[in-house]
Amino acid sequence: MVRKYMHLRNSGLLYESLFPIGEKKHPDIYYDESDYMWKGVLPSGERMQGDLRSIAWHFVGKDIRYRYSLNGQDKKTRMFEKVVLATVEAPECFSVESFADDYSKQEFECLQRLAEALRQNRS
Asked: CB of 119 within 8 A of CB of 91?
C-alpha cells in the first residue's frame, strides 16, 4: 500500500498540496507522512500538531460538545462515542431529551432506540 502511494506520488498521478509540507505558510490542515501525524497552520499563522479533532477545533475556533444527562446530572463530552458508552453503561438513568439540539436527528433517534432496547432487554 505504501509503495503504491509512493509510486503514485512520485509519478505525479496523485494530487498533493502546491506547497511542500515543510514550507506551508498558508492556513491548512494536512497529514505529515514523514512524522505520521496531523499538522496545521492556523489562520493566525500558529503551527500545531496532534490529533485531527483538536487541530480542526483550533482552526475554526469552535469545538463540538455533546451534552447528556446521567443520574440527573448534566454531563458533556467532545466525542459521540462517549455518549454511546454512557448509554450502554446506564440506559435506565440516561437521557438526551433536553439536549436534542446538540445531536443530529439520526444521532438522537439512535441514542433513544439504543437506551430503550437496552432497558427492555435488561429488565
From this structure: yes
pTM: 0.65
Q: What is the pLDDT of residues 82-123, one digit of tens each?
A: 999 999 999 999 999 999 999 999 999 999 999 999 999 988
- For residue 66, which phi and psi values (nearest 5 degrees)? -110, 125
CA–CA dist 90, 78 (Å, integer): 19
Tell me which residue range forms the domain holding 37: 18-60
Cα distances from 59 to residues 16, 93, 108, 116, in angstroms, run 20, 36, 27, 38
Q: What are phi and psi of 47, to 5 degrees?
A: -105, 145
Pairwise CA distance, residues 92 & 117, whole Å? 10
Say if 2 falls within a structural domain: no
Alpha helix (H) residue ranges in the chain: 2-11, 52-60, 80-89, 105-122
The residues near 24 (Cβ < 8 Å, ≥ 6 apart) are 17, 30, 41
As for how many domains the chain has, the answer is: 2
